[in-house]
Write a structure and sequence with these properties.
Length: 118
């Protein structure tokens, strides 16, 4: 099963503790589950073998890469606050605020189809 991880907080950096700043703060935290559920529901309608879950690594790219994650979905506002190291940026979905707030699954589903077609 291929993994998709939803990133809701910026990568930890000097002077910024994990969990603070970026990613919409509480706005993202309380909507995260709804967005993940909406996308997983759409995935389940297809014969695709993907699982969409929330990040448990505090945005640690090394741990994410070691776990074999196929796609990363970043919450609005994290485009320049997430350290991707050598992770292929073609495997990252940067959500807009409108996509996230309206549970628009199209950006993630489009990226899944691209990965399946390769």
């Amino acid at each position: 099963m291929k993994k998709i991880i939803f990133i809701s907080m910026p990568s930890p950096t000097l002077m910024r503790a994990p969990g603070f700043g970026g990613g919409g703060g509480l706005f993202t935290h309380f909507r995260e589950g709804e967005y993940i559920h909406a996308v997983q529901k759409e995935i389940d309608k297809t014969p695709l073998n993907w699982q969409f879950t929330s990040d448990t690594t505090e945005s640690n790219i090394e741990e994410l890469m070691e776990s074999g994650v196929e796609l990363l979905v970043l919450a609005p506002g994290l485009r320049f606050m997430f350290y991707r190291k050598n992770f292929d940026k073609q495997r990252i979905v940067f959500l807009t605020t409108m996509e996230f707030m309206s549970n628009d699954v199209r950006p993630v589903m489009r990226k899944i189809r691209e990965r399946e077609d390769e």
